[in-house]
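Ticket #4471: structure export looks truncated?
Reporter: QA, pipeline team
Priority: medium

Steps to reproduce: submit the single chain below to the structure queue and open the exported record.
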Amino acid sequence: MLEATDITKSYGSGENRNPVLKGISLTIPTGAFTVILGASGSGKSTLLNILSGLERPESGHVSYDGTEITTLSDAALTAFRRKTVGFIFQQYYLLPDMTVEKNVRMGADLAGNREYREILRAVGLEEKLKKYPSELSGGEQQRVAIARALAKKPQVLFLDEPTGALDEATGRQVLEYLSKLHRERSFTVVMVTHNQNIAEMADTVIRMNSGRIAESYVNQTRKSAYEIGW
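Actual output as written to the record:
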């Protein structure tokens, strides 16, 4: 279980101080698919970075199954991220001089996972192992990023606008792959998006506005990537 309590975060100082998060508390059950929804500037990406350990809060606490990560040393926090979480961003961040297989193997090696080719099959890239990122479509590159993150065998997968750079058809395909893998592998998903339609795929939706949680609700029925609007 992922828990955050009274998280605050500001940037700048003095007259230029900008409060971004203003006392955020939430609980995300293990294995849940949670979407954090909000417009640009609502604080959702900053919250994602703090929940995942990429940034530290100004005040407040974040814990995983009772282990508080906000008090860990930098070295311990890095080790925690390596072992526990995976990241997928709007930009793919693939290494251009490495093949698909080698990009994914990087993630697998962090976890000592020798079954990374199973992940590549699961995301439909078995025939692209020897291709380089420049030889792939945007959707294929994003699927490589998903495979690389999952090859670490993370307990929690964090995604920041993962379809933001994709067209509708490709975005739906990527989301459907992700949803399928989530059902099969039961890892926790926390996704940030401004797309209200994508929120219909989640178990729980947390809507943010101006650095606060404005609303939190559970979807009684989850939709597939091909049932939502775009």
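Status: closed, not a bug. The export was complete when the record was re-opened. Leaving a note from the reviewer for reference: The first helix runs from residue 44 to 52.
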